[in-house]
Every structure is written in structure tokens, then in C-alpha cells.
Design a protein that fits this description.
Blueprint: H1 5-16, E1 25-26, H2 29-35, H3 43-55, E2 59-62, E3 65-67, E4 73-74, E5 77-80, H4 82-85
Parallel strand pairs: 1-3
Antiparallel strand pairs: 2-5, 3-4
This protein binds zinc ion.
The site of zinc ion has 9 residues, from helix 2.
């Protein structure tokens, strides 16, 4: 069993809502699942989907950061592709 098409679309939509900023903002897997209405027993499928998205360059998984949803520090932070956030020219 894998995530449904609509679940995958919700996951991507949640990531797209992230605003660019200097701090790495994103979601831990648990909060991303909650936001995208993915049930706990489907987290393994969510993780597999995320790694596929990372390979496509649509998002990144950082080794640490602040989860926007919970305001807590996490070891695996899912963020949207930072090339979009880095569009601002350097000073
Ligand atoms: Zn979280």
C-alpha cells in the first residue's frame, strides 16, 4: 500500500505553503503527516514518498531545524526546495 494521490498532493501543498526565510523552516515528519492528513500507520509510506520527492529536487530533508507546526527542534526537518527561498540576490 502506498499513499493515495490526494495524500501526496496534500503533502506537497503543505510544503509549498512554507515561506522563504533565513531560518530553515519546515515540518517534522509527524507534523507534516498531521497537516496532510496522513494516518500514523501510513508514516512509512509518507517517508518513502518524501525521499522520492527529495530525489526529484522538490524538497529537502535537513539534519536539524525548527518545526513550524510544533515550534520544536527536530533531527529530520522536511523543507521545500531551498533554491526557491534563496532567490533573493546576495548583498
Ligand atoms: Zn513537529
Amino acid at each position: 500500500m502506498v499513499l493515495s494521490r490526494s495524500q501526496e498532493e496534500r503533502v506537497l501543498a503543505v510544503l509549498q505553503r512554507q515561506l522563504p526565510g533565513s531560518l530553515p523552516l519546515g515540518y517534522c515528519v509527524a507534523h507534516l503527516a498531521t497537516a496532510a492528513k496522513v494516518k500514523p500507520d501510513q508514516h512509512v509510506h509518507l517517508a518513502r514518498f518524501l525521499y522520492a520527492v527529495v530525489r526529484k529536487g522538490q524538497c529537502e530533508i535537513l539534519e536539524e531545524g525548527l518545526c513550524t507546526a510544533g515550534g520544536h527542534e527536530v533531527r529530520e526537518l522536511v523543507v521545500r526546495d531551498r533554491s526557491l527561498a534563496l532567490a533573493e540576490p546576495p548583498r
